[in-house]
Amino acid sequence: MEQFAQSEFFFYHIAPNLTLIKFVFFFGIFGLVGVVAQSVRIGLEAEEAEEMEVSRGNE
Hints:
The protein is built from 3 helices and no strands. The chain is mostly helical.
């Protein structure tokens, strides 16, 4: 890793864009968190709908 960090490619292409790379990385992490939150919400809503359906069947 240290050898890569000292390479000419890193110095000219990666280092000037570190802010952009960090932004894209964190944007991706927040996107994944959003997908997980959406999945949990959908799962909870489906579970709640299933419980209401079962309780209506008992009436």
